[in-house]
Structures are given as structure tokens and as C-alpha cells.
Design a protein that fits this description.
Elements lengths: L2 H38 L8 H13 L4 H4 L6 E2 L5 H17 L1 H12 L5 H39 L10 E2 H18 L2 H10 L5 H6 L1 H15 L5 H21 L4 H9 L1
Parallel strand pairs: 1-2
Helix pairs in contact: 1-4, 1-5, 4-7, 5-6, 6-7, 6-11, 8-11, 10-11
């Protein structure tokens, strides 16, 4: 195939992806009143699954700290006339993008498959499957743990007893989308590291040697991801990222020479 033939194939893939996004986006737009009440705003209610899990831990271990026993409710306010409609559209779009990630990876696979040898196909299929699984795992961690903890801490934090916290709809949605999507992307770190190791760019000894530097980079990245900038939210995001870094070290192999050296020692 010529260069222009490849571009034509790529254009077809992009058109199919956009069509799938559009169809799913329309579906989410129609279902948004239900999804907004039962999914997106669920962390605002005391009966959210993660809050129930914290209460269960407190009961089982006899912990009386407010962190485990707190009754939590958040009431949002809207101060922008056009915000409900714009948020309705943007939320439907982003839900479409997230839920169709497997199809996106499938189109990537279809595009690169003709250029791969049989042994390379197995590696790429494994990488795409792992990437899809890790992305959704990150989204679930962001939705069920990172964002609820962030919301519960920041919404109940008082600078002064004279200042009443009122959370706007725009603020809630922007923080929600930012944390959940960024956690999904952050969970691709082991896959990225694995691919770089296959290319010979990084190896296990390299990651171990620069572990302290990675900690600093992870804290900086967490500060960029978290729109609030408070230490609590920073820690909630940085700790999972560091665990992913350690998982990356476990996933890749040593260089042959280093492996022999380790056996010799």
C-alpha cells in the first residue's frame, strides 16, 4: 500500500470511531437524567458503596473516628444559566469516550495488524487487552475511591465557621471528570513501561536506580492531575501512581547480562 492508501485506511478508522462516539453520545444524552442521579451524583449521597464500606470497616474494627462513622451528604448549587445544558452535553460525550475505549483499541489493532509479524501480533494483542483492562480499572478506582475521598474531605473542610461551603455544579463535574479520567490514563503506566522495555528503552535495573526520582515525578504529576492542589487529594492520587510504578518494575524483565550477574551473585 502507498502512503495515501494508509491515510485512506486511517481516515476510515477515524470516521468509524467518530460515528460510534456520536451514537453512544446520543444514547447517553437521552439517558442522562437517570445516569446523573444514580451514577454521577452518587458520591454525594451517604449510601454510596465506598462510604458503606468505610462504615463496615469501622463497625468490624470498633473504630469510632469520624472518618468511618460520618454521615455524608452534599447538595450542589447552580449559579450559571447555561451550565445544566452544557454539562448535559459534555458529560454525555465523555461517557461515550470512556465506554467505547475497547472499540478504540480494536480500531488501533485493525490499523497496525497488517504491518506485524505473527510473533508481534501476539504481543500487540496482549498489550491492547492489558491497556483496556488497566484503563477501566483506573476509572473504577477513580470513581469508587479517589473522587469520593476527595469530595468528602474537601466538601467538609471549613476554613472558618463563618464560611458555609456551597459546591457549584460546574466545580463538581470538572473535578469528577478530571480525577476519574486521569486515573484511567494513569493506570496505563505499567503498559507503557512494558512496551518501552520491549523496545529496550528501559529495564528493571534502570527503574530501581531512579526510584527516588520517580517519586518526585509522581508527586509533580499528581499535583498536575489534581485540580484542587490540597495535600490530601495529592496523596490519594500519588499513592496509587507509586504502586503502579512498583507494578511496572515487577512486570518487566532484567536485561540478559544483568540477569546472569544477579544469578552469579
Amino acid at each position: 500500500m502507498t502512503f495515501w492508501d494508509h491515510l485512506d485506511v486511517l481516515r476510515g478508522a477515524l470516521i468509524r470511531i467518530l460515528c460510534v462516539w456520536f451514537v453512544c453520545g446520543v444514547g447517553y444524552f437521552l439517558a442522562m437524567p437517570y445516569l446523573f442521579d444514580h451514577v454521577i451524583l452518587a458520591p454525594c449521597s451517604n449510601d454510596f458503596a465506598f462510604y458503606g464500606f468505610l462504615r463496615w470497616i469501622g463497625q468490624e474494627l470498633g473504630l469510632q473516628d469520624e472518618f468511618f462513622t460520618q454521615d455524608f451528604h452534599v447538595r450542589l448549587v447552580n449559579i450559571n444559566l447555561a451550565a445544566p445544558f452544557l454539562i448535559h452535553m459534555s458529560t454525555a460525550f465523555w461517557l461515550s469516550v470512556v465506554s467505547t475505549a475497547p472499540y478504540l483499541f480494536y480500531e488501533v489493532w485493525r490499523f497496525v495488524r497488517p504491518a506485524l509479524y505473527p510473533h508481534e501480533m501476539r504481543g500487540v494483542k496482549k498489550a491492547l487487552a492489558l491497556g483496556t483492562a488497566m484503563f477501566f480499572l483506573g476509572v473504577l478506582v477513580g470513581y469508587f475511591m479517589v473522587y469520593p475521598l476527595t469530595l468528602r474531605f474537601l466538601s467538609t473542610y471549613q476554613l472558618s465557621a463563618l464560611v458555609e461551603n456551597q459546591i457549584s455544579l460546574n466545580s463538581y463535574i470538572s473535578n469528577f471528570m478530571m480525577l476519574v479520567l486521569c486515573m484511567g490514563l494513569a493506570f496505563e503506566l505499567p503498559l507503557l513501561t512494558w512496551l518501552l522495555s520491549l523496545l529496550g528503552v528501559v529495564h528493571k535495573a534502570f527503574l530501581r536506580k531512579y526510584r527516588r526520582h520517580a517519586v518526585v515525578a509522581i508527586v509533580v504529576l499528581a499535583a498536575v492531575i489534581t485540580p484542587t492542589g490540597d495535600p490530601f487529594t495529592l496523596a490519594v492520587v500519588a499513592i496509587p501512581l507509586y504502586l503502579l510504578y512498583e507494578l511496572s518494575i515487577l512486570m518487566i524483565k532484567d536485561k540478559p547480562g544483568e540477569e546472569r550477574s544477579a544469578h552469579g551473585e
